[in-house]
DNA sequence: AATGAATGAGGCTTCATTCAT
DNA sequence: CATGAATGAAGCCTCATTCAT
């Protein structure tokens, strides 16, 4: 047998999830009807409750899965303490780019997990907190301006990422690399014309 | 007559609006029930329909009023072309501060008009567009780094404002003035420690 | 004073009635709203209840007034017994024509009083009964075919009048005189071509 | 399985239709409540919307089905051109009788489809039109009086049928056969006593 | 003679969820 | 593993009618 036992059930579950993600992302939780999800999955309503205990349950599962994956990704971009000072911009750039890429690759999940669920609040705080941690060491090393509140900077970065994800990434006006470069440069050097290194970039 | 004719009706309408704004802001459109709104306004359900044609209608009115006021405020912070170069940071600071203050003073309306309604998309685009217009002249005057995309910078500013409004303003962790100063400094000079003017600020 | 006391009230009452008749006739009882009636009469809802105790009351008044007038008219077209045999067709023609004219002149009232209200049943029975009375004597005098049921004939006439009123009179495709002539001829002589007198008519 | 799949649903749908027809016919559209229909069908309100999209939808379905059947019946009573002249009365009699029988057998549907819905206008026009077509050939063959307007005659017949259906058929005062015979005789030969053939009928 | 403001009552419809098979 | 059929709960909205002035 090419397909083991339980395969069909898993298939159905996946189809339900896929349909639900699409609906939630584009219609929001309330406008999404269980009846639509099951129809799109080629099933009937009772079948839905074979796999999920409620409409809220499937929404939560989608959100939690996404947040889990996001947290994992966040671990990979956390800078170890003791990093070489001159490597900081590079590391920051890598982190931002990776984050952008992750969100761009999961637009529907991002819409749900970052813009619809109240849980988004928490994950954004975590994200901001990680950024703060990453930045604080450099600031204490005199690398960053001492009067800047790293908390505020971190929130700014989160806001920038949120906004650009929607306005540039989802609309494909720009890509993760380009965006990350510009954002990092902006945050590092500011808008003023003097002393920039942007010109030296490829 | 202590109060003119039509006063009572306007009062009721206002109470309905106030209740609706509070409910919409804190429960969202779908969880907000007309029955709750009218109860909070000390009325019965049919009275609601004396003043608004539907639940959607009152939501739209709230949103449109807010957007209208936001647009008016945006006009007042638009920089006239031909501004003195050395005044730019001051003007930008004023603009950002005014914007923050406006949002901080209308938290519920902001929640509705900036984070709940799909119409928010449009007004944010308008906001970003206004910022772009404001910045472009300075960039062409060599004031801002030529390789920076003002569109992206504008979107960043919008994202920053969105995020800080929620995380700092609504939670009263910070106020409009302080936030505006930090944001403008960050965007103007970046995070790096060299050549800052922040220290000279009051 | 050109207008005596109470004039204004009567005026309002008339306007309400006029509006109600038009609405009832064209929308039916249920689709007609008190709010529409008063608006068309240039009044407010409570004013309505100054003159009529309910929506049903005004409807009934309209119906009863019309039926009263219809009954009066029916009296005028009732044939006295002992009429000369050769005058019968003339008298029948007169009766039918008068009836058509009455209905044509009151299209809205007819729509209400003959086609909408359940009371129509009664008045139509009365109408049919009058016709029966009118015809029976002639039948007993051998004037009409003895095997024909005058009850049925009377009902036929009522049905014809109903239908032609709607299809010809209201649409102005034909007028009372022409219709009456054709109907009476048809009923008197039938459709067959032999022995008609229609040709001799003007 | 004693009954095939889908049987129960169809049963419920039929019960809903039956209840609806009865309510509509006797209470009219507006006084008929969905809640009554479902109660009579032994179901709850949401079940109604499993089978019909709205109260209006079920009404329309009832009307359309009836009109469809009526149209089919009308086809069967349409006289082919080239019919033998002496057969005309027989054919007309058959047609009228068939029509009466159809209406008598469907009193509730007739009440709805012929007296309640605005759509009745159309079907009556179609009926009149068919009658006109049937009569015109005979008139041109000299069979019917040349000065009679077949349009008017047709409308008369429609009116007669309408009226007798209500006053005789529904009340069971008379039956289709008897009514048809009298109506046809009346229209063919008129009320006058001379030259009738009614006496020769069984 | 009339109005601004409000309400009681009730109907239609939707949706997540479950029962029985 | 899945379905046909059904329901509980609840929300939106309408309309005739009335209160207080």
UniProtKB/TrEMBL annotation, chains A, B, C, D:
It holds the Pfam family TetR_N. Keywords: DNA-binding. Residues 33-52 bind DNA. SUPFAM superfamilies: Homeodomain-like, Tetracyclin repressor-like, C-terminal domain. Residues 10-70 form the HTH tetR-type domain. InterPro entries: Homeodomain-like_sf (IPR009057), HTH-type_Tx_Regulator (IPR050624), HTH_TetR (IPR001647), Tet_transcr_reg_TetR-rel_C_sf (IPR036271). One of its GO terms (molecular function) is DNA binding. This is TetR family transcriptional regulator. It comes from Aneurinibacillus migulanus. The lineage of its organism: Bacteria, Bacillati, Bacillota, Bacilli, Bacillales.
């Amino acid at each position: 047998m090419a397909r083991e036992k339980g395969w069909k059930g898993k298939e159905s579950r996946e189809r339900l999830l896929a349909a639900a993600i699409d609906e939630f992302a584009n219609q929001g939780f309330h406008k999404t009807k269980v009846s639509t999800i099951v129809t799109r999955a080629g099933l009937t309503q009772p079948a839905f409750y074979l796999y999920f205990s409620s409409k809220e349950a499937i929404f939560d599962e989608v959100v939690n899965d996404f947040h889990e994956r996001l947290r994992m990704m966040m671990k990979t971009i956390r800078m170890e303490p003791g990093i070489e000072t001159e490597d900081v911009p590079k590391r920051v750039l890598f982190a931002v780019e990776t984050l952008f890429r992750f969100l761009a690759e999961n637009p529907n999940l991002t819409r749900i997990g970052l813009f619809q669920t109240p849980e988004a609040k928490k994950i954004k705080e975590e994200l901001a907190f990680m950024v703060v941690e990453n930045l604080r060491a450099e600031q204490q090393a005199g690398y960053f301006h001492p009067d800047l509140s790293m908390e505020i900077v971190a929130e700014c970065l989160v806001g920038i990422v949120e906004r650009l994800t929607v306005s540039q990434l989802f609309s494909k006006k720009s890509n993760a690399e380009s965006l990350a470069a510009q954002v990092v440069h902006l945050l590092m050097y500011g808008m003023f014309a003097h002393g920039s290194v942007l010109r030296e970039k490829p």
